[in-house]
Design a protein that fits this description.
Number of strands: 20
Bound molecules: adenosine-5'-triphosphate
Distance between the termini: 37 Å
Helix content: 10-25%
Number of helices: 9
Radius of gyration: 25 Å
Strand order of the largest sheet: 6-7-8-3-9-10
Length: 365
């Protein structure tokens, strides 16, 4: 079993706190993505799990065993790097078998394992080639093959797709997902790309300035972010944020965005948002919940009109930029229903998907 536990894990580089007391339980065979902006500490966390970086404080456990002092080669962990790190003078076969040869694995077994991995990765034809005779995507596969043949308990990936062009990145993303379905192992995958994290992982860990902001399934992170940082980081195009006031309205509450624009708070949130009456808050709504006007009967839907500033056709949808008060927001329209630049357009907002954020704590209520 390869559960990994990070217990109050710290890393200082001189006086820079790169990782600040994180706790995380990773389940056996789970695919975890560590995601966050540059410098948030995700690579440092991965390197500590691999044993390539000393731990300043805390513990790392694999199964029941604390591995803080275990040498990288004895951790039963394989790492796939961004730059592949293939040996240029060796063939694909030699690259893939190198680690096993060092461990004095019998020749027949090496051959079986290399061919099985090559089969999974669809690179059986390339075994005699040198790395320079391969495309970026093929090199990436060889780097993964070298990890697979070791049959490790844990795979660590450090931005493995960032050197590939956009199309290949999407293809390889699907490949990695398929491979994980075939080769069941625990995976920790570092990326700064939230789409990659969303599409690949069972659970996403969003890091920010050395701490974990939130851990959850892609759906949880998207539908129920707990902090402003996660709300803004997950989702593309990103969530809209507008300053607002919470007011009483009849027997319920409403969100006032401007002098002329306020929307009723859904009945099931009135208790939750009651304590915010009169406070300056931040209102969050994803672009897909502000659409071209639709017929509706649900009480959480409301209509409003605004002038179109910019249109961005995406094919499947058109992004419509409008101003609410001083703030520019993005709405998502069916292409044929999108208005014209400079002209008023009717929209429908679904308040069932609103978020209310406390500006002092950045917590989503
Ligand atoms: P990126 O996506 O840019 O790789 P990251 O989230 O992986 O970012 P880390 O590489 O873990 O971030 O770095 C976290 C912090 O630690 C950063 O402030 C970085 O400058 C610092 N840091 C990383 N490695 C070292 C080092 N060897 N010496 C000093 N500071 C370091």
């Amino acid at each position: 079993m390869a559960e990994i536990q990070l217990r109050d894990l710290w890393k200082y580089y001189d006086d820079v706190a790169a990782v600040r007391g994180i706790n995380l339980d990773i389940e056996h065979n789970e695919f975890i993505a560590l995601v966050g902006p540059s410098g948030c500490g995700k690579t440092t966390t991965l390197r500590m799990i691999a044993g390539l970086e000393d731990i300043t404080a805390g513990d790392i456990l694999v199964g029941e065993r604390i591995i803080n002092e275990v040498a990288p080669k004895d951790r039963d962990i394989a790492m796939v790097f961004q730059n592949y790190a293939l040996y240029p003078h060796m063939s694909v076969y030699q690259n893939m078998s190198f680690g096993l040869r060092l461990r004095k694995t019998p020749k027949d077994e090496i051959d079986d394992r290399v061919r099985a991995a090559a089969d999974i990765l669809n690179i059986g034809e390339l075994l005699d080639r040198r790395p320079k005779q391969l495309s970026g995507g093929q090199r990436q596969r060889v780097a993964m093959g070298r990890a697979i043949v070791r049959n490790p308990q844990v795979f660590l990936f450090d931005e493995p797709l960032s050197n590939l062009d956009a199309k290949l990145r999407v293809q390889m993303r699907t490949e990695i997902k398929k491979i994980h379905q075939r080769v069941q192992t625990t995976v920790v995958y570092v990326t700064h790309d939230q789409v990659e994290a969303m599409t690949l992982a069972d659970r996403i860990v969003v890091m920010n300035e050395g701490i974990i902001e939130q851990v959850g399934s892609p759906e949880e992170m998207y539908d129920a972010p707990q902090t402003l940082f996660v709300a803004a980081f997950i989702g593309s195009p990103s969530m809209n944020f507008l300053p607002c006031h919470v007011e009483t309205r009849d027997s319920g509450l409403s969100i006032r965005l401007t002098e002329n624009l306020s929307f009723a708070v859904p009945a099931d949130r009135v208790d939750r948002y009651g304590p915010c009456i009169g406070k300056e808050m931040l209102f969050g709504i994803r672009p897909e919940h502000v659409t071209d006007k639709r017929p509706h009967t649900d009480p959480t839907y409301h209509d409003f009109t605004s002038d179109v500033i910019v249109l961005e056709p995406m094919g499947i949808d058109t992004m419509v930029f409008i101003n609410i008060g001083e703030t520019e927001i993005t709405a998502r329209s069916r292409p044929r229903a999108a208005g014209q630049v400079g002209q008023p357009m009717d929209f429908t907002i679904d308040m069932a998907h609103m978020h209310l954020i406390d500006q002092e704590t950045d917590i989503v209520l």
